[in-house]
Specification:
Layout: H1 3-15, E1 18-23, E2 28-33, H2 43-46, H3 51-54, H4 64-71, E3 75-83, E4 89-101, E5 104-114, H5 125-129, H6 148-161, E6 167-170, H7 177-186, E7 195-199, H8 205-213, E8 214-215, E9 226-227, H9 229-232, E10 237-241, H10 248-260, E11 262-264, E12 271-273, E13 277-282, H11 286-291, H12 297-303, E14 306-309, H13 320-335, E15 341-342, H14 344-352, H15 358-370, E16 377-378, H16 385-389, E17 393-396, E18 399-402, H17 410-428, H18 433-440, H19 444-453
Parallel strand pairs: 6-13, 6-14, 7-10, 10-13, 15-16
Antiparallel strand pairs: 1-2, 1-5, 3-4, 4-5, 8-9, 11-12, 17-18
Length: 460
């Protein structure tokens, strides 16, 4: 056993609320609940039973213990939603290790603690992991997810972070692209060097060039000697957010800087060597930008040595409860409230809503609810009205009564209606995919793709 593994084991045992050991079939062999927080279960209630029977809200994909059984690799400090006996959801941190002998994996041990039970506010992970970098506040540990695709992206970017290749990230507005960029910088060899972030859509085109490349006094009226972003970020990382807002003429100059690794201030003759890793992002699909000639192909190829897409919240609905608990915990401290969770109707609405603004919209929704909540549960009346309105599709004798929502775009209104029609077809077909696809007059594979897109379960 490696020293670092022993350290994690000791730390996990010291902080743990629950210890659970399972065999290779996933049945519980040992269970000890020190703080009596998880469903108030005793050893006699769970030993000998399958893990997923005791914890029905878990799946083979979201259970850390079952993931360890499958991969044989330890999982350290993985966020996980735990449902208490009264129906309340809390966030837990799980650490799981495989139990092996020469013949293979015998089982797994899982150690869990409820982060809401910690009375002393912990130092944020982002601050503990930060070195001397300028501006990068987050690490990969700050990314809250139990989604398999997201975990895969994190693991890939952790590996990529150690190198110097440029990175191109696509994700809809509010998916957390900047958080990933901060984490990449903090995990890189450049973490002690500057981190410079610039949203290209936030500055006028006329000022963008001077901001990025710098200026020489007298080059134009009011110009002074000033370093540009590349000089300021030298040795570190520069993040160009919404780079699709950059004019094509400026994209050509940026390409030259990347190729020559030199930058010249506006109005100057001297060239400065630059050693900068560039991470660029866009909130529009790259193929669409290239097709519409909004982005230079040669620049895209230079920036997308590593290309990553961050999935929208509607494609990772399993993270909603985890994120909800995190934001409730955050806003309880900010608003000095004691909110425990959501009422059942709100939970259902959150899982049905498409969240076009993604995590940013979701966080703002929770914060908005805290401004009106009166009890210890967030009620439907505390949720912004536009979220409820977006799902007002009802059946009457004449068919579907679908009210167009002014707050939503044509595409978003169409998606709401399409999801409803798919769910209704599945009900009429009694969950039979072939019959449902015939009712909808689309190929079976197209229906499977739409089920995945809208996160519709055939078991609903």
């Amino acid at each position: 056993m490696q020293t670092k593994d022993l350290h994690h084991i000791k730390k996990a045992f010291k902080e743990t609320d629950v210890i659970c050991i399972i065999d290779k079939e996933g049945k519980i062999l040992y269970y000890n609940n020190y703080n009596d927080i998880h469903n108030k279960l005793g050893t006699e209630d769970v030993v000998g039973k399958p893990l997923l029977e005791v914890y029905p809200w878990l799946t083979e994909e979201t259970s850390t213990a079952l993931n360890v059984l499958r991969t044989g690799q330890a999982i350290i400090n993985q966020p996980q939603v735990v449902q208490l006996g009264d129906g309340t959801d809390v966030n837990a941190i799980n650490t799981a290790f495989p139990l092996k002998n020469k013949e293979g994996i015998l089982g797994a041990v899982s150690l869990s603690y409820d982060i809401n039970s910690i009375t002393t506010p912990p130092v944020p992970k982002s601050l503990k992991s930060r070195k001397h970098n300028l501006g990068a506040r987050y690490t990969f540990e700050d990314i809250i997810t139990q989604n398999a695709d997201m975990i895969g992206i994190i693991n890939r970017l952790k590996k990529v972070s150690k190198h110097n290749s440029n990175i191109f990230i696509y994700g809809e507005t509010g998916t957390g692209k900047e958080l990933f960029v901060h984490a990449i910088h903090n995990a890189s060899r450049r973490s002690s060097m500057p981190f410079i972030s610039q949203n290209c859509a936030a500055i006028p085109e006329t000022l963008m060039e001077s901001l990025i490349f710098g200026t020489v006094e007298g080059s134009f009226t009011g110009a002074v000697n000033k370093k540009g972003l590349f000089e300021l970020a030298n040795g570190g990382t520069i993040f160009l957010d919404e780079i699709n807002s950059m004019p094509l003429s400026l994209q050509a100059k940026l390409l030259r800087v990347i190729e020559d690794r030199k930058v010249r201030r506006i109005g100057g003759n001297a060239e400065f060597e630059t050693d900068v890793r560039i991470i660029a992002s866009t909130n529009e699909p790259p193929d669409k930008l290239l097709k519409n000639n909004k982005f230079r192909r040669d620049l895209f190829y230079r920036l997308s040595v590593v290309n990553t897409e961050i999935p929208p919240l509607r494609e990772r609905k399993g993270d909603i409860q985890l994120l909800c608990n995190h934001f409730i915990h955050e806003f309880n401290r900010m608003f000095e409230e004691n909110v425990k969770g959501l009422e059942a109707q709100v939970k259902k609405l959150f899982m049905q809503y498409h969240w076009p603004g993604n995590i940013r919209e979701f966080k703002n929704c929770i914060e908005g609810a805290f401004n009106s909540v009166e009890g210890n549960l967030i009620l439907l009346q505390d949720i912004p009205s536009y979220i409820g309105k977006s799902h007002r599709i009802e059946m009457n004798d004449d068919g579907i009564d679908f009210k167009i929502q002014k707050e939503l775009s044509l595409r978003e209104n169409t998606e709401v209606l399409e999801k409803y029609l798919i769910v209704e077809a599945l009900k009429k077909a009694e969950k039979n995919i072939t019959r449902a696809s015939n009712l909808l007059e689309i190929p079976r594979q197209s229906l499977y793709n739409k089920l995945k897109k809208y996160d519709i379960s055939q078991q609903e």
